[in-house]
Write a structure and sequence with these properties.
six-stranded mixed sheet, two-stranded antiparallel sheet, alpha/beta
Length: 226
């Protein structure tokens, strides 16, 4: 009698569970990589890439002799930053971008010119309230476990070294991704037409957020979990 009751309860549980799982199950994105800005050199790398794309766009559209003026914006592309509103990144990236444009031979104006093509850029700070972790690529721990299993007949000292390596990687299988990211958007506008636009997303060190955060007008985007 008891097996019948047990089987009935299991069947009811399965039916009840199926009734509660009609919506798609949440899954994460496939494994990807995202760069992290941790030095002024990284700002220069981005400036070089943006200058290269701007120069390429100008040549493709026969604007090779048109002057360029680089302007930092706060909030929208039509709102230039006022004195005291810029951040360390604002000022540093503008200088680096102008330097890279000059290196590429792009005619760059020192002062705003009505005839110049305007290059705007801005940075948005994204704050994640929930703690997040970044996983290692799938298969790393499996491969290590298999490698250690192969050594099961080795001497104890070889096994100890292999086990230590496994534990070291296992402990770092997930990294703290931090709470902050930044979105850096660069636009080149002629009249009301976009000639070029790019948006780059980076991780940053949490303690460095102030280098990107506008102090007088908050542009921080807060993303909270459930």
């Amino acid at each position: 009698m008891r097996p019948i009751i047990f089987t009935t309860l299991i069947s009811l549980f399965i039916l009840g569970t199926n009734g509660c799982t009609r919506i798609p199950q949440p899954v994460t994105y496939n494994y990807t990589e995202q760069q992290k800005m941790q030095a002024a050199h990284h700002w220069d790398v981005l400036a070089n890439d943006v200058a290269h794309q701007i120069n390429k766009t100008l040549l493709q559209n026969n604007y090779d002799s048109a002057p360029i003026f680089v302007r930092t914006t706060c909030g929208t592309e039509n709102t230039p930053c006022q004195p005291g509103e810029t951040t360390q990144f604002n000022e540093g990236f503008r200088d680096l971008l102008i330097t890279q444009l000059v290196h590429f031979g792009v005619p760059t104006s020192a002062n705003e010119d009505p005839k110049a093509i305007v290059v705007n850029y801005k940075v948005q700070v994204v704050y994640h309230r929930d703690k997040r972790t970044a996983a290692r690529p799938p298969g790393v721990l499996t491969a290590l476990t298999t490698a250690i299993s192969v050594l099961r007949w080795s001497s104890w000292d070889v096994q100890a070294v292999a086990a230590a390596g496994f534990l070291d990687v296992a402990s770092s299988a997930t990294n703290d991704a931090g709470q902050y990211e930044i979105i850096i958007t660069t636009s080149m506008i002629s009249g009301n037409k976009y000639l070029f636009r790019s948006s780059d997303i980076y991780y940053i060190n949490d303690l460095d957020f102030w280098q990107y955060q506008n102090t007088t007008q908050s542009k921080e985007i807060q993303i909270t979990g459930h």
